[in-house]
Amino acid sequence: MKTIDSINFSGKRAIIRVDFNVPLDSTFKVTDETRIKAAIPTLKKILKDGGSIVLMSHLGRPKDGPTNKCSLSHIVGNVSKALGINVSFVDDCISQEAFDRSAGLKLGEVLLLENLRFYKEEEKGDENFAKLLSKHGNVYVNDAFGTAHRAHASTAVIAKFFTRENKCLGYVMANEVASIDKVLNHAAKPFTAIIGGAKVSDKILIIEQLMNKADNILISGGMAFTFVKAMGGNIGKSLCEDDRLQTAKDILQKAKEKGVTFYIPTDAIIADNFSNDANFKESKIREIPDGWMGLDAGPETILMNADVIKNSKTILWNGPMGVFEMSNFENGTKQAALAIAEATKNGAYTLIGGGDSVAAINKYNLADKVSYVSTGGGALLEYIEQGSLPGVKAVE
Ligand code: AMP
Question: Candidates 3.30.70.600, 3.90.870.10, 3.40.50.20, 3.40.50.1260; correct CATH number of 4-173?
Fold first, then answer.
């Protein structure tokens, strides 16, 4: 893996793809600066070396060209504050003015370009557009893990306009790749993959890949009910993908052949409605009455999960154990998060990835009690499915 540590940026102008796709409120104030702060070590290293920086990113989903709502001008103040120097801004990414401003940068200065996605060419991976962007710098740095699974102009195609010596990954990307690599290729055993969340269909490829790597696969959340029904259980009106029952059976069969232990919940907290105000009670998972649905792990399953987690040396967690957004159905997710934190304390390597498990680990204030919290759910899952990412391959 080629990281920015292998390049001395003295006298160089770096064009960096960052992920500044941050949430804004109705007055265009940044409500979560995590992604901006994450990029700072990469920027500081380049400035410390004596280089200058041109930053490029997308923000939101602009449909038809420029809109104020998606303008990166709203975040210039946040970037300046986080970096501790004044960052300048130009209201286009490929205009003559943009090129004049980047060419005129003095060493130690930083320029932020306007939203790349104001041009449709960005997401199309247009070569000409990528070539134009490449003119902003003489070294290309990719530090946008959140979009590394997309072969867009700024995330992958642009890399071909730089020589091998002049392209690399920034620290955000390098840390993400190192953490996935540790779990997928250098896992201390036993390695447990916890796959939860709503749908089996979203996670089939992941489960199949993980069956080649993990010792244990712990199935949880809504997707567990498709497995339970496939095994002949009564699941009432719990979430189920009837067109995936055979898939679930095939997965269980494959796991047996490969010697991977599958853990499926044995009990659940069931409710008569999908609501925090619903009536709820405990039930065996195979005996859920008609008209009731499973919304959380039951006490027996919580103990089973904690036991597997605490006996693991490597843990990958993707997807909650239940509807943790509702207080009556959060206990399974909360207890799993606490068990993962305890396993980490006892020496396990724990990687949390995928939107909702990250939301859960944050909800219980455990982000600093696990080994690594991935910043890009989609990219992490695709890395596991494909074994690499376009944004990583492009600079290799
Ligand atoms: P995913 O994005 O596939 O990881 O799914 C996460 C979502 O699944 C969360 O919003 C959970 O509330 C939801 N979820 C988890 N367990 C259940 C369940 N038993 N029934 C319905 N939804 C669930």
Answer: 3.40.50.1260
